Amino acid sequence: MIVRKAKLSDVEQIHEIVNYYAEKGMMLSRARSMLYEHIRDFVVAEEDGEILGTGALHVLWIDLAELRTLAVKENLLSKGIGSKIVDFILEEAKELGIPKVFTLTYQPGFFEKHGFNVIQKESMPHKVWTDCINCPKFPNCNEVCLEKIIDL
Ligand SMILES: CC(C)(COP(=O)(O)OP(=O)(O)OC[C@H]1O[C@@H](n2cnc3c(N)ncnc32)[C@H](O)[C@@H]1OP(=O)(O)O)[C@@H](O)C(=O)NCCC(=O)NCCS
């Protein structure tokens, strides 16, 4: 298995993985148009042409990026794939000189294992809420906000 930046030809498989969990209410759904437009944000774990999992780093501001759309195929959970994707994304944040990465998630325990700390959602800048206002759960959502300070 390798973890690498995504290509346009990965979009169909990314779409399938993400929207599988979105239909269960576990994460935000992503339209193909969004995936194409933001393809440079995306990372994939791949083996023999099969996309096993994905995640994205979305830069928001001078000192802030969001780790989002992290998902691993259900039959391949707990094999370390999600961790490898997170490590790749955090390394990319470091290379880009981004001092802080945050995430909004229903899986805080997973991110705490990767050095993220829970913070108050309200402490984040308004720009962070762009996705949220389009979500059917807004404003009554119990996603947890976590951040990680990157050692640049
Ligand atoms: C969250 C997710 C990406 C983790 O991927 P994964 O490949 O199963 O994770 P890993 O195998 O790398 O797990 C690494 C560690 O985190 C732990 N872990 C995984 N999910 C966890 C959770 N929700 N809470 C606490 N620990 C968790 C694993 O037990 C493992 O621990 P260990 O190293 O001590 O054995 C995966 O569960 C997933 O795709 N979930 C559905 C989509 C989703 O909820 N995404 C969240 C971001 S929006």
UniProtKB/TrEMBL annotation:
Residues 1-151 form the N-acetyltransferase domain. SUPFAM superfamilies: Acyl-CoA N-acyltransferases (Nat). Its EC number is 2.3.1.1. GO terms for cellular component: cytoplasm. GO terms for molecular function: N-acetyltransferase activity. InterPro entries: Acyl_CoA_acyltransferase, GNAT_dom, NSI-like. Keywords: Acyltransferase, Transferase. Signal peptide: none annotated. It comes from the Bacteria. It is an enzyme of class 2 (transferase). PANTHER family: ACYL-COA N-ACYLTRANSFERASE, GCN5-RELATED N-ACETYLTRANSFERASE 2, CHLOROPLASTIC. This is Amino-acid acetyltransferase. It comes from Oxobacter pfennigii.
